[in-house]
Write a structure and sequence with these properties.
single chain, two-stranded antiparallel sheet, Rossmann fold
């Protein structure tokens, strides 16, 4: 038999009244405001002396490329401070730098037991309008450290600040190579393992450095030049989604027989213009027979900053890019770098150096046109 227990109406009214009078839930306490970010890098002060560039990462050794009274500098602007564009999402991260009038290098060395002696000078992109030192410079310091590779951040002058890319920025890159080589012993760097990696507009500095180092050295051989006699030839170059090289737009610069090995990377159809520039450099080196030139053209990849299908924009530098093969190019670079012997201990001759010496000992290769002329006619 089912029995139902029914409360009298008066009792129900009492229960409802008690619920209505019960205190509401205790609100959560308001959290204390977060402290501001610490150790945020700032530009240095200005005074009557040439501006002293500050390290963008802890422990960086900063050296100006030229003496403060150098004719290469604009005396009326060399005292101006650099301007930092900070990330809006990551406290303390410098995204880019502008207003560079006293160009410099920032050197980050590695522990002695890990050190290979190799040094990569990284030249950031930014369309010559900014210098994107966050994703295309600073991020490479810990990456290369793990492989025992020293990283040198180049702060070159920009077109937006009134400088000429070929006359000023390219010279900054070659001067940086000489300066690192001049101080190689102090920084425990192998003078035969110094090269340059350029991103986008930065590759417009790296490519000429691989071609015009002999001319630069001749023009800077005066006895008054403290770096006279130190070669600006890079031992390797890397062109990462490059801007136009000297071979672009029909250019036919002479290729020195001792042109360094090169690693080239770009998206292909998704970054067609930069891919064409990359391939122009690759094919010129291939035709000249320069050893150890490697190219990676990724089918799925766009230029950094370009819009993606999901509304985001292509990232730069070392970003994983959601697992795309394009985002693993740095692993292919390390494969190439290791294969050429740059990850051996300091003082050990690299395969790259041996291959270049062998190439120089042989007669120059015939051009493709000449080979086709002398080819036997099939019957």
């Amino acid at each position: 038999m089912n029995c139902a227990f029914v409360l009298p109406a008066a009792v129900w009214l009492g229960v409802l009244a008690a619920v209505a009078q019960a205190p509401s839930a205790v609100p959560s306490p308001t959290p204390s405001p977060l402290p501001p970010a610490l150790g945020v890098p700032k530009p240095g002060p200005t005074n009557d002396a040439a501006y002293a560039p500050q390290p963008i990462l802890q422990g960086g050794v900063v050296v100006a490329l030229y003496p403060p009274d150098s004719s290469r500098l604009k005396a009326e602007r060399v005292r101006e401070a650099e301007q930092y564009n900070m990330s809006k999402a990551v406290p303390g991260r410098i995204s880019s730098i502008v207003n560079i009038h006293n160009p410099s290098i920032e050197v980050h060395t590695v522990e002695g037991g890990l050190n290979t002696g190799a040094a990569v000078i990284v030249a950031a992109g930014g369309g010559h309008n900014t210098l994107n030192v966050g994703s295309e410079s600073a991020d490479f310091v810990p990456f290369f450290y793990n492989y025992g590779v020293n990283t040198v951040i180049l702060r070159n002058r920009l077109r937006r600040d009134g400088y000429n890319v070929q006359a000023d920025a390219v010279n900054d890159a070659m001067q940086a190579i000489r300066l690192v080589r001049a101080h190689a012993k102090e920084w425990n760097i192998d003078p035969h393992k110094i090269g340059i990696m350029g991103f986008s507009a930065g590759a417009e500095l790296a490519a000429p450095a691989a071609l015009f180092f002999e001319e630069f050295d001749r023009k800077n051989a005066e006895a008054t030049d403290p770096l006279a006699g130190i070669t600006s030839r890079p031992d390797f170059v890397a062109l990462i989604y490059p801007g136009p090289t000297p071979f672009a737009r029909g250019g036919t610069p002479a290729i020195p027989r001792s042109a360094p090995p090169a690693f080239i990377m770009c998206g292909s159809a998704g970054d067609r213009v930069h891919a064409i520039w990359a391939n122009e450099y690759y094919f010129a080196m291939l035709q000249a027979g320069v050893p150890n030139v490697e190219s990676h053209m990724y089918g799925n990849g766009r230029h950094p900053g370009d819009p993606m299908g999901d509304g985001s924009r292509m990232s730069a530098g070392l970003a994983d890019r959601n697992g795309m093969p394009f985002g693993k190019w740095q692993d292919r670079y390390i494969d190439w770098f290791r294969d050429l012997g740059f990850l051996q201990k300091p003082g050990v001759e690299t395969k790259a150096a041996r291959d270049t010496a062998t190439f120089l000992s042989q007669p120059p290769p015939q051009s493709m046109e000449r080979r086709s002329t002398n080819a036997p006619v099939s019957k």
